[in-house]
Fold these 4 entries.
Entry 1:
Amino acid sequence: MHFSMYSYLRKFLFYFNPERSHTIALQGLRFADKLGLLRLVTKPTAHPRTVMGLTFQHPVGLAAGLDKNADYVDALAALGFSFIEIGTVTPKPQTGNMPPRLFRLVEQEALINRMGFNNKGMEYVAHQLEKTRYRGILGINIGKNKDTPLEHAADDYRLGFRHLWKYASYITINISSPNTPGLRDLQEANALTALLATLKKEQGKIAEIHRYIPLVVKISPDLSHEALRTMATILLQQKIDGVIATNTTIQREGIEQSPVAHEAGGLSGRPLQARSTYVIKQLHPLLQNNIPIIASGGVIDKASIQEKLAAGASLVQVYTGLIYHGLEIMNDTSK
């Protein structure tokens, strides 16, 4: 879709509150797909690359969070992403935090969200994925339920892995959302080592009988260099297959003047661009070319995509950039 066309559509969508416009956009997309209109969308040029043993047609995929429940996979696939990540999915359904919980910062091309892993649960998602036509690369992002104590978090992640692996090209564990109390504590060395050991064991069992499902860890942009160094060591020791850098930030640098800067939640979009690129630059040498990086956070336009790839990322994921710029963000990025 040409940017000038999307700018008109964006004006319409931004007339509604962010969560309502999110639903309208996705339902409209599904309707357009059923009418065959999405066949007219210009797809990015193919520049295949192999990452985690999977062949991606170009580097740009869709980040988790846009389609939490796998309700719109076929329509989203028609837009030309080289891969789609759904979720975050928890074992049991949960409503998430009370609205309002999603805020636009139009001037800064950013969003603040405190959704809180609102989703319909792994049983519903499995049912939806049974029905999809899409056979491209699908990531499934899993998390723990809010009411699951931290010491039992591994049980939730193992349940999610066990229940959803057969639909997944890879599984991402979300231990870095700022919107589930205590979740980021799972990034601490001992907790992370124990969690990853549990999931690697599950991965091994499934690989013996069925196939190998790459395991990816999504990390916070708010980690110190020392914490990143420790995390890289653990990821290498546990033979993790990929890392998504990064989730949203709790910092408010660059949005101080916004009337919603005080709202709790994770910040995404342009204000996160520099920090997430910094994390990639720090992490890339630490991972010694053994674990690929998928860039997420601050992927707002073509220039930021190139910046992430130059910093050491193998792939990138868009979400907030798509909200502000439409599909223009994917054009001519596949180098």
Note: The first helix runs from residue 3 to 13.
Entry 2:
Amino acid sequence: MTENAWRSARLALGTASALGLGRFAYGLVLPAMSDQLGWNLTQAGAMTTANGFGYLVGAMTTAAVSRRIGTAATFRLGMVLCAVALAATAASGEYPALLAARALAGFAGALVFVAGAVMTPTIVYFAGTGLGIALSGAALPLLLDQHPERWPLAWAGLAAAGGLAAAVSWTAARPPETSASNTHTAAGHRLWAVAVAYLLFAAGYITYITFLSAYLADRHATTTQTTLTWTLLGVAVMAAPALWQRHIARRPGGRLLAVLLGVIAATAALPLLAPAQPVVMTSALVYGATFMAVPAAVTALVGAATPPERLTGTMAVFTAVFAAGQTAGPWLAGALADHTTPGAALGWTAVLCGLGALLSATTVTPRSSPAVKERAIEPANRTI
């Protein structure tokens, strides 16, 4: 493994911790917490909404924090805060305290996500999320099976994993490199349409992974089935670079974004059309192989149309748009599911991502010059 590849792998622990552990593992602990704390699906969704709100605040402040302490230090700060937030989630069963801990995890996640995306803007970085999902999926259902009272122990374990990730990635965080070839830019992409599609994706995708375990529980899935489903999902996320990296590097346009969102929409609808366990696992597998490619594709689109000196700020704006969507999505989908069935959350994902696919296919058009295309390709190849 080359030095750059090893550095990318260590930085990918950022998304593993901030997203895989800090955000998505909640879906695995949710059934146990709901059972022990007496939550309905609206209250459960509000926890993810709090996480999304923290992420929104973090996205709005990341550029200022980065200007003050630097991109690398911002990444490290976010990693430490993420581990602290996970530990805080294990410390209390009081609803307001848990809301605050989830919000802190979201804030920390935004710092990590934006800073890391600037330092290594490739799908390899985003695919690190899969490691956190796979590890959580392999361990948490077994820990919590028939013992929902162990949910604080689950969060303590996630906190320990987050602390280890912070330590291993610490020296990999370095200021991003710039070069003379990266000074040319053009506003070739319709970034407003990209932002709207990203908003729809954010509000839609998060509900699938938040309520997947609740859906499985409603279908009386066994612990083995839940573990296998989540582990497959995480492994698929890690495999995503092999499927999408070349396409994202060479074609950062609306057609690719539309394909990704269309696949997610169809994948989310699968369990509703045929709720058999093999179909659900296939849905999780394809979903995992696709959903983290969307932030990578959006990053490529933004990078191709933004000067290097404005990239951190522009990425922060897009992360704020993303955060707004995932703040509202879980609460609204949870309320819908309370009045219908847990499967409605998957339908929510299908509809919103389908709309995003339609918008991307009809509105987001790449009109970049060759120099801009070179900018989109170069960062992706730099860390392979």
Note: Residues 3-172+185-382 form a domain with the Growth Hormone; Chain: A; fold (CATH 1.20.1250.20).
Entry 3:
Amino acid sequence: MPSPSSLFSPLPDPVHPARIGDVLIGPQPVKILASIMAPGTSDLIETAYDYQRLEGDRSIDILEWRADFFESPGLNAFLAAALELRQCTEKPVVWTLRTRAEGGLAPDDESYREQVLGMAASELVDAVDMELARGITAEDVALARQAQTRVILSYHNFEKTPSQEAMLEMLLAMDALGADVLKIAVMPRTPEDVLSLLSVTCAARRRTGKPVISMSMGAWGALSRVSGAIFGSSAAFASVVHASAPGQFEVSRARTLMRELLQAS
């Protein structure tokens, strides 16, 4: 009888991978993103330069610029900072403006849409993270893709884990809108919530053929952040200095755990 490990095979690579800068999200290995939560341009540039120099297991694949941490926000300020950022790092950049409702600092008003669409059309960042709950349309996604900016459509819930049916419906809605990457982050209240998120990740990968980034937050959900190769999440967020969400591992620890999980399988 074959051993359990010999029966294991990771999910096949997505048939529609997403190229963000020079990094292809979808094929193995799982890609690592690290967030920069800088209050201004000088801190943004300094941190990006530090991240650029990380090597080995501490290296990252993609930078996420959390623009909602800027102390003087606004589209003009973001565009000016993005121009400087482009000149100081070779890492692909995902621009994210997280609203208060999704665990960030940006106001939940019409300025969100203006700034997200402005950055998507600027050609100064490689991808933009757009919140599904902010009323993003297929036209908005198409506008970004015309500028060769990849779109990560996302859903965040820091209070609970919705039902499997609701989560899968949201991921399929992101796919229907034309997103390049489908992203979901939820808070578990029971161990079963973590299993629900992992099951939905597999289902969304199989149904859409697109890269999925999924995470169950907090201590209970920590496994979901490093089990992408098994359950279908194509990228993971890890911390270099400060975590941008509860439950993140430090970069080198995340890489080590990913390797160990695959080897044990």
Note: The chain is about 35% helix and 20% strand.
Entry 4:
Amino acid sequence: MSESDEILFQVWGARGSLFAGGADRIAFGGDTTCFGLSAGGGLTIVDAGSGLRAMGEAMAGPPPPVEIDLLLTHLHFDHICGLPFFEPVFSEATVLRVWSAAFERDEDFRAALERAMSPPVFPRFRDWDRVRLCTARAGMPVPLAMGGTATPFALNHPDGAQGWRIDRAGRAIAIAADHEAGDADIDAGIAKAARGVDLLVWDAMYTDEEVAARRGWGHSSWRQGLAVAGAAGAGHLLMTHHDPGRTDAALARMEREARAVHPELTFARAGWRRAI
């Protein structure tokens, strides 16, 4: 594998549920879920949280990629709120494909997304014609403009959610944010989908004590992530979906504790990059 085969992975938003502002929430960032993967001159994005706005701003200047694939894990608002603020949407040079594995038909996907961005909850998004909405099927890979494929797999989360495995030129990344560990079948499915990946992104919103008190809320702990990563034989482990109430100091303590157990582990923060 050559350097040109690399996937550059970058965190644009790692908070969960709600944007988190304040002087004590700067180091890890306050924006909600958004990850960018670039390779071969192409771009793939996972989730359209508020971090997508910052990503679009960073792309200002040179022409954006002609084709972008945006993979949604689910349609909770913290994962789609950045879409109408993403500058490349408004460029005629950009083709944006948005993928979901939660619907049987493209029309149903479009109707659900449009409901989320309609008055009186949100001003009507007027640029839907620029967006191509596409449905995927669990376990079936879809082609990416940057090369390679993305394959959805089931997560355990209220209203349903899907993780994504991205494969390109022998490199692989699996994203399992917004998942509550504990369902043996789904956990085994994630481990299978993430087998041998170079990077596993895991929902670590809660501590072990909080997980026990918040069953059914749809989130996990870093220790639960270690168990799945071990079963999958995953390389590096990236913890995400930080509680909006968690300060930088608290997240740094959690990261130190986790790294003492598993050195190949990082708590996601805005701007974190890794070449895969």
Note: The chain has six helices and 14 strands.
